[in-house]
């Protein structure tokens, strides 16, 4: 299996679901923690975050696919960095999207992995495996960074979400999806 090909094909497919997940997760946590936004706002953000708009029976599968997709592009991306022959042009001073993507990937790897695994385990545990409220609460606390305390939890969520948005933006820019195609003269 060609990891580069997998990474380049899977990332654009996951772009919108991951962007939606990142933005709504941050909006929920920041909105509720810093701005005291309503329960209705929070419920709406979670409806988008978990894909409840697709229908209740689909939510666990959606969360599983998005979570596994994120883990897949993370693993394939990190493996691509290890295989890279030339160091990221260490002498070059200019920071471009590709270089930012390559710098952020190993930094964000652990928080993304923890967030994806605990988010998926929380949703599947409740929906498919009958986790008790206490068991599910542990997973949600890890997913949200609640172990850091109420002051740092929103900052953690903001940093993880912002990192994901940056990785998505730089990755989609590198993919060439938005490049204009040249028309060949026949």
Please identify the structural class as seen in this structure.
Answer: mainly alpha
Helix content: over 70%
First-to-last CA distance: 36 Å
**Order of helical and strand elements:** HHHHHH
Beta-strand share of residues = under 5%
Task: Give the number of helices.
Answer: 6
* Record field, number of beta strands: 0
How many domains? The number is 1
Tell me about the largest β-sheet: none
Instruction: Indicate the overall shape.
Output: globular
Low-confidence stretches: none
Instruction: Kindly report the average pLDDT value.
Output: 90
Rounded to the nearest angstrom, the radius of gyration is: 18 Å
Could you give the topology of this structure?
Blueprint (H helix, E strand, L loop, with lengths): L2 H31 L5 H11 L9 H25 L13 H31 L5 H12 L8 H23 L11
Helix pairs in contact: 1-2, 1-3, 1-6, 3-4, 4-5, 4-6
Keywords: Membrane, Transmembrane, Transmembrane helix
Pfam families: PepSY_TM
Protein name: PepSY domain-containing protein
Condensed summary:
The chain has 186 residues and is mostly helical.
